[in-house]
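During the no-cost extension, the postdoctoral fellow (Dr. R.K.) reprocessed legacy sequence entries with the updated structure-token encoder. One reprocessed record is reproduced below for audit purposes.
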Amino acid sequence: MALSCCLRWCGNGGSGHIQLKEMPAVQLDTQHMGTDVVIVKNGRRICGTGGCLANAPLHQNKSYFEFKVQSTGVWGVGVATQKANLNQIPFGRDAQSLVLRHDGAIYHNNEERNRLPANSLPQEGDVVGLTYDHVELNIYLNGKNMHCPASGIRGTVYPVVYVDDSAILDCQFSEFYSPPPPGFEKILFEQQIF
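Re-encoded structure tokens follow.
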């Protein structure tokens, strides 16, 4: 009885009520992925060969997101524009992507911009966190700042990941393994920012 009463008041969008629109989840975007990429686990796991963008651009000032290495191989994580060639790996060869590669090098425009400290290469089971503030990309390994910022990419960017050679990575765009650094937060869709 109480349920039908509640539905009677708000179910038909009667006067004085505003219909709230649920925001979609940030996940890997199957409309923006390489032809040999496989996306599973509700848009959170990538395998196969090639890259994929997330479905939300990084509009806010300070974004944080994570990737967990489930299986090693050739991989990279970072940010890219929608102009990035998602079939041509490794990323970082042109001005359309800024990525940490599996070997610890951070590349943009075919130039090494920085490198993880010695003995800090991500291994199977490790979590790579990334912050982006529209200027710098910073890398965290299992919650620890690697102090290797990189910059140079311009325009609207999205989180990006690529895999090859049996690599499998899981994405975390919320409910993180490690808390975001102070001032950084999960990716918000543009409508959530205002």
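The CA atoms of residues 2 and 75 lie 53 Å apart. The mean pLDDT is 90. The remaining legacy entries will be reprocessed before the final report is submitted.
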